Amino acid sequence: MLFTDRVDAGQRLAGALGHLRGADPVVLGLPRGGVPVAYQVARALGAPLDVIVVRKLGVPYHRELGFGAIGEGGVRVISDDIVRRGHVSEKDVASVERAEAAELTRQAQRFSADRPRVGIEGRTVVVVDDGIATGATAAAACEVVRAQGAARVVLAVPVAPPDAVSWLRTLADEVVCLSTPRAFSAVGEWYRDFSQTPDEEVVALLAQSAADPPEAVKSEDVEVEAGGVRLAGELALPEGTAAVVMFAHGSGSSRHSPRNRSVATALNAAGLGTLLFDLLTGPEAADRRNVFDIEVLADRLAGATRWLRTRTAGPLGYFGASTGAAAALWAASSAGPEVGAVVSRGGRPDLAGSRLPGVRAPTLLIVGGRDTTVLDLNRQAESALRCECRLVVVPGATHLFEEPGALEEVSALARDWFTLHLVSRRP
């Protein structure tokens, strides 16, 4: 995965952190390059932004290779293996550490001057950097926030080598990394623009975040009336929203699906409203036969669409996953122009059967490249559809898109499809 710049990386990373929206998190960026990434994350989560000052200890003849790191509060992390293999003497270690300690003090004063620090005690803290090489700096950052009383530590980065991520999972409560390439030599090679971030930019972003703290799109708990029953849901309508996307969850899933919530966060960030709701009641969901009753699920979705029309008059789209995709296409076949676009993630559109030719809404089918059985079924469905249709295969992804970067690609594809067909084509 190649990022355009740190802003692009931050926006993509924010999409993978949507499950933290309700956790009242604090976002801490590692200066300097981690702060522009963290700023985008903080905006998407509606969280306060601050810095955590940690300094890498670089091998004297190869500064990009870190043999350790130091952080505020006297935290010190040293990789004995790199010290040994890099032939770094005790004298060199002491010299580098003195120089970096001085820079750590300077940065802490520079970035915190005349600005109260954000309190993190007892809170979920998201530590953000623009990438990880050896992991020593990130490890030190995790230790610093632990020492300052964080209740939960989430480390979030766009790119890192697999071995570093494995190690850091033992230090943080959660690690979110979009890409873990095996052929890894430096963070900068995964960015088109990896120009240096000056102190002035860090100070400006912190001031901007403090002066105008962003608000996350607030969701409202609702009861959706559909098919003679009341279904629990969450409705999020960004200010000035142009369209709303309704989510039809797959078999065994619900409005709490972390994958669908992650996609919803990306859509909200793009100004699209979302309705996440359960297609079945609790007792109904306990009977596995119901999750494959596509006709009932489609009827519930159609009823929810009528309910939503009492709240908003803008264009509507459907996002379906697994069996929910079949329900979305079935409902769209009866809705006519009422539904402006459909997106299927790892869906079973084949279960909509004879209803497929009746779908008029532009439809995007997204399937993982390693989800071979479902891919074949989607190809068959693509042939049966008579509407504008596109099948996109995410290379290396399995059915749940759990691979690094896979779900973020789904979110970007869905965002662009709905923006094109629900917003850009409005009369």
TrEMBL record:
Keyword list, A-Z: Transferase
Keyword Transferase found: yes
Gene3D superfamilies in UniProt: 3.40.50.2020, alpha/beta hydrolase, PRTase-like
Protein's UniProt keywords contain Nucleus: no
Residue ranges constituting the Phosphoribosyltransferase domain according to the UniProt record: 95-176
Gene Ontology MF annotations: transferase activity
InterPro entries: AB_hydrolase_fold, PRTase-like, PRTase_dom
Protein name from the UniProt record: Phosphoribosyl transferase
Organism: Streptomyces tirandamycinicus
Biological classification of the source: Bacteria, Bacillati, Actinomycetota, Actinomycetes, Kitasatosporales
